[in-house]
Design a protein that fits this description.
Distance between the termini: 86 Å
Structural class: mainly alpha
Order of helices and strands: HHHHEEHHHHH
Oligomer: single chain
Helix content: over 70%
Number of helices: 9
Number of strands: 2
Length: 318
């Protein structure tokens, strides 16, 4: 195997692991947060694309390689769309603005492109993706582009550009230094892998740039996770409670799988059901506590603002 191909496969494997861990963490620990869900779906999209891409490169037959290529593009589409959705939801929730009109346009284009990809997969229409592979640069099985692959790449780049426009607007509109720092961190930890990951498209245009951009994807994954914990992008207390509860559920469920007899199996099921019940109660109580604390903080801010206005009024009267 060509050393460059081997390095490329290593980068894809790294992307599968890091994106998968990040997606699972966000999905199970902050599922109630709209921005967190979008980011989790984005991570799952990168994971699906990288895994399918890996299979396409090492597939034993052309038919398997083509199928993996075509299926993987759905993950690529989900990754870019949900990244823009994450940026929009994050800024919307913090700055109390709405980008729903823009996002609905993106969703419409996304469904259209997904339909075209499905037609390429089922009916070999060759609009975006063809049904054959050929040697290209260092790779023996690289997908032959369809008639409008360049348009798909343009939509991919547009989604990322739109996300950075959302970040810019969120930075300019916000007066909170912590949120501005969060936006800056998200910008720098995503722009590098966005550029690096996009270099894979150059292979379709026979540009002999070494495909090492995949190694920059973990920078985005860990950067976002750092932002989530460092700047409280999502509520840390809720995340900690949910993550701790999920770990307990996994341990108790694992005991069911390794039970050696019927008695141990029955006991393990009982323990799992108890931890499931009390775990849900714990998560619910923490979420309730956080909501009450947020409400109290909001009331306190309003009272402080009212007291300040009253003090200004008294000073004017005097």
């Amino acid at each position: 195997m060509d050393p460059i191909v081997f390095i490329y496969l290593v980068s894809l494997s790294l992307n599968v692991v890091t994106s998968g861990i990040s997606g699972l963490f966000l999905f199970f620990s902050a599922w109630h947060n709209r921005a967190a869900r979008s980011l989790a779906y984005c991570d799952f999209g990168w994971m699906f694309w990288s895994g399918s891409h890996f299979v396409a490169i090492v597939a034993p037959t052309e038919a398997v390689s083509v199928l993996a290529w075509q299926i993987g593009f759905f993950g690529l589409l989900a990754g870019c769309v949900f990244f823009a959705d994450f940026a929009a939801r994050l800024v919307e929730e913090h700055n109390k603005v709405s980008y729903r009109v823009f996002q609905r346009v993106i969703y419409t284009f996304t469904l259209t492109i997904a339909g075209i990809l499905l037609s390429d997969l089922l009916f070999e229409t060759n609009i975006i993706l063809s049904s054959s592979v050929s040697p290209r640069l260092w790779f023996d099985q690289w997908l032959v582009p369809g008639r409008f692959l360049t348009a798909f790449i343009g939509f991919f780049l547009f989604c990322f550009s739109l996300a950075y426009v959302y970040f810019f607007l969120g930075y300019k509109q916000s007066k909170e230094k912590v949120f501005q720092q969060t936006i800056l961190l998200l910008f720098w930890t995503t722009i590098v892998p966005a550029i690096g990951g996009s270099t894979q498209y150059l292979i379709w245009y026979d540009v002999p740039l070494l495909p090492l951009g995949g190694f920059t994807i973990p920078v985005y994954v860990f950067g976002v996770l750092y932002a989530a914990t460092r700047f409280h992008l999502f509520n840390a207390k809720v995340i900690t409670a949910e993550l701790f509860t999920i770990i307990i559920w996994m341990i108790t469920f694992g005991r069911i799988l390794v039970a050696r007899d019927s008695f141990e199996f029955t006991v393990s099921i009982g323990v799992f059901l108890l931890t499931l019940f009390f775990g849900l109660l714990t998560i619910r109580s923490v979420i309730t506590e956080v909501k009450q604390k947020d409400s109290l903080e909001q009331v306190t801010k309003e009272l402080d603002h009212a007291n300040k206005n009253l003090a200004d009024l008294n000073s004017n009267l005097e």
